Amino acid sequence: MDIASLFLGGSGSVMTSFFSLTFLIAFLPVSLLAYAVVPHKAKKFVLLIASLVFFWLVSSVLIVYLFLTILSVFLFGKWLDKIQRTMKEVLSKTEKEKRKEIKQGFVHRQRMVLLLAVILHVGLLLTLKYSGFFADNINSLLSLVNAPFEIPVPKLMMPIGISFFTLQAVSYITDVYHGLIKADGNILRISLFISFFPQIVEGPICRYSQTADQLWNVKQIEYKNLTFGLQRILYGMMKKIVIADRLDPMVKAIFDEPNNYHGGIIFLGAVCYTIQLYMDFSGSMDAVMGIAEIFGVKMPENFERPFFSKSVSEFWKRWHITLGTWFKDYIFYPVTSTKKMKNLTSSARKKLGNHYGPLIAGGVALFCVWFCNGLWHGAGWNYIFFGMYHFVLILGGNMITPLANRFFKAVKLDPECFVYRLFRIIRTALLVVIGELFFRSTGLMSGFGLFGRIVSDFSFSGLNSELLKKLSIDPQDFIIIGITLVAVFIVSLMNEKGISLRDKIAKRGIVTRWCIFYALILFIIIFGAYGFGYIPVDPMYANF
């Protein structure tokens, strides 16, 4: 039995959800109270202690991985900084003719340090998260050739959030290497940047330049930050426990035993899973943003209303934004900026033109991004297929853009007209649902089986009260989910048009404001999925 089990009565996972009673009525209030009462200079240390305690409670002794990451980030940053300072000193005393050669030597040393750091951090992530997957696939190949042996499949424990804080660590070291930030000589500030408790479970994946100084130079809790932060936590809670958690039993029932259902029911399950995943993840992000806002910290947004997207490419610019930005900055751009890729682009541009020429190098980089994106989400071929699926859709969309523009011009169709924009939004959502079908499946072949049933046996026959009962859902659940989805849609539509509902509410009188807040609280209490016999659903992206 670990510390988390002792503290939480047998379920360490309870603390991983920002909407659990343990977190909301114990951990967060205690952290806020301690933060409020200590002197201003000590507030940053309260945040650091709270963050380390939180991680200890959800990961127990696996906190050692977090400590190793922090120490590694600190030391590699200092190592790179030392090389850079030495280079400047040497170059300032070197004759102009010899500077280029000497600089190249120092740059090579920095590259070796960066490479070592990336290998250590990414290697640890690959070992913990994917060694079992790789071993299983190697054994499958060995069995095909009748090999008389197989390699052992390791079973390693992985701390929660390692995929997120590993990417933050790599971004810090890479930014120091490129000179975008100075190496931080304060290991406590780096510790707080890496471990800040709201973000460590599901992100967002922050850059050092975005949050480190904010976290270290913290402010007093202000009334506006407190109220706006609590509002956003409540809004996220509504999305999570009224929609996502209410859909969870139905989604599990369909995907656990898909052979029991017609293709129409499976498609309904895929749609519901897509809604569940978005409401769960975006709701958790609302809580993260809200908690950070209370402390006066502004974190990068992770969602910008992705289901208003008119293409798959736009969708992924709006969904899990910080992950997409990380892949763009640390994989896509480095691949396209290599000398070979630049030469390829230059040559292809002359032969294929300004649109199709850059697509070759861009396609190679895009493949790398989406292969890594799929693998990052999980150790399974269905996740890799999920990445390749979106790679094909995005690359294909880029390739047909000139042809589509010519078609619109020929038929005199305005691509920005409402009907066509609505068609594109619905089409994009449908393509996303198909991708999530494979994402949620238990394996790649299972995903193809599910898709095959949708295509060959698309029927809603048997969808009655008896089936709904088997799926642990009833018509009243759909009504509650539907009403809540309409509310989320209205808020999203207002945000899409640049209208802030929170600002509008803040301008109302105190009676109106508090009536709205209490109405939201009562709605969550009455219609939220919880109670005796109900098992709280862990944050879905914490598993990725």
Secondary structure layout:
Layout (H helix, E strand, L loop, with lengths): L2 H6 L12 H17 L5 H17 L3 H30 L3 H49 L17 H17 L8 H9 L12 H9 L6 H34 L6 H32 L17 H7 L2 H16 L2 H39 L3 H31 L6 H23 L3 H13 L8 H6 L4 H22 L4 H6 L3 H18 L17
Helix pairs in contact: 2-3, 3-7, 4-5, 4-6, 4-7, 5-6, 7-8, 9-10, 9-18, 9-20, 10-15, 10-16, 12-13, 13-14, 14-15, 15-16
Summarize the structure.
The chain has helices at 3-8, 21-37, 43-59, 63-92, 96-144, 162-178, 187-195, 208-216, 223-256, 263-294, 312-318, 321-336, 339-377, 381-411, 418-440, 444-456, 465-470, 475-496, 501-506, 510-527. The chain is mostly helical and 544 residues long.
Beta content comes to under 5%
What structural class do helix, strand and pairing data support? Answer: mainly alpha
Helix content percent band = over 70%
Q: Which residue ranges are poorly predicted, with pLDDT under 50 across at least 5 consecutive positions?
A: 1-13
In DSSP terms (H or I, runs of 4 or more residues), the helix count works out at 20
Task: Report the biggest beta sheet as strand number plus sense, adding barrel if it closes.
Answer: none
Radius of gyration: 25 Å
Instruction: Tell me the series of helices and strands, N- to C-terminal.
Output: HHHHHHHHHHHHHHHHHHHH
Measure the end-to-end span: 25 Å
Overall body shape: globular
Mean of residue pLDDT? 89
Q: State the total count of DSSP E strands.
A: 0
Query: How many domains is the backbone divided into?
Result: 3
